[in-house]
Amino acid sequence: MRTKIAHDGIKNLHYEIREIVDYGHALQKLGVPITWENIGDPVAAGEHVAPWIKEIVRNLQNDDSTWAYCPSRGVSKTREFLARVASERPGGVKVGPDDILFFNGIADAVDKIYDLIQKDNRVLMPSPSYPTHTSNEGKRGDYPHLQFQLYPKNNWQPDLEEIENKVKYNPQVVAIAIVNPDNPTGAVYPRKTLEAIVAIARKYGLFIICDEIYAHLCYNGAETLHISQVLGDVPALSLRGISKDFPWPGSRCGWIEMLNRDSSAFFREYCDALVKSKMMEVCSTTLPQMAIPAVYGDPRYAALKAERSAMFERRSNQVFEYFRDHVPGTIVRPVQGAFYFCVAFEDGVLNDRQTLPIADPAVKAFVEKSVEGVALDKRFVHYMMASEGVCVTPLTGFHTDILGFRLTTLNPDDAKRARTLERIGDSIRRYLKS
Ligand SMILES: Cc1ncc(COP(=O)(O)O)c(C=O)c1O
Q1: Measuring from each residue's beta carbon to the nearest atom of ligand 1, which residues come in under 6 Å?
Q2: pLDDT digits (tens, 9 = 90+) for 264-312
Q3: pLDDT digit string (tens) for 114-150?
Q4: CATH number 3.30.450.40 is the correct assignment for the domain at 8-47+302-433
Q5: Whose CA is nearest to atom 7 of ligand 1?
Q6: Residue 219 neighbours by CB distance under 10 Å
Q7: Ligand 1 atom showing the smallest separation from residue 39 Cα
Q8: Ligand 1 atom nearest residue 244's Cα
Q9: Which of 108, 150, 161, 262 is most buried per CB count within 10 Å?
């Protein structure tokens, strides 16, 4: 080639949740069986989609219009339905059908949302953070990420003063991004924290990006509170989808609510650009959009939501109690949402000499090479995968300095999940002593 093609920001593209899969596949080729506890796909993990939802989808595909393109913003009836639901939230911002914009999943929305922000402007986001947000923010320029910390010992909550200071001393910050309930930590922001973040946004003229894909999975005392319910007049994008709800991650169907779109000329211009950019792509997937009013509007949906939240509550408490009672050297807190669990290591317990026994010389050589120069939590994960065959995601893969890992609570088999926990706990105990 006559010149370098890719721009410098690409070095910020990391998605450890899937990158670790390549490593797992390489181990499988060497004969190591792997238990996957890394990817947040409930269906791949074995959850069965409710028969009544399948029936809705089956019936829809008999309608030829579900095979056609739909309007670029999204199917009109579905946007009308979603705008009505959003506007009915107690204390919520009023939302019209044109404030809703469909994408091929939230991941697609995230790509556009960051792409259309001026190159030198920055989005402040949590640490740890869901890598689709951090990578898309990072790829716009060659800057270090601008983040505020979520503190494991404080239930993975942020320090509001730190957020305000980061905004105040970095005038190029135009938005604060949060994921609520959070991936990877499973934390839910209490109302007063959301209100405080909104107040900072209002004071400094920012907008909020709130990824609410797990909004319907709240438990352990937390209740769904949408950003639109605490926003007042502050502009925001709320990101929503059906991947985790129906659950139907393969539908590639998500949408954004552009909240208080007319509160500022700059924000309106930016929202218009999001709509235009979607038009370039014609539209998003049609059939899943058409299923939305039928599924969310079905009287059985409330029961499904309650049942799944209770299920993840029970499982996450089992994981919490196991680590709290059996695995010294780790920091864990009960989680309140989504289906992830983060284990942080206590400061100083990891070093670059720790190992786990690996009998097969080829696997041992492969692992020893793979851990050269990697973060200490990734080193642990690589050893655990090779020695015990359990794949989790190192926490540093979520753009953070906090060492730890994330596992999912998706495995539907209670006994198997309990065994996996034992295997992880046993690996940590042996690794820390090695
Ligand atoms: C916080 C968060 N946002 C977005 C996504 C992706 O959503 P979608 O399937 O709608 O692209 C995920 C997937 O795990 C996620 O955890």
Answers
A1: 40, 105-107, 130, 132, 179, 183, 211, 213, 241, 243, 249, 254
A2: 999 999 999 999 999 989 999 999 999 999 999 999 999 999 999 999 9
A3: 999 998 899 999 999 999 999 889 887 777 789 999 9
A4: no
A5: 106
A6: 24
A7: 14
A8: 9
A9: 150
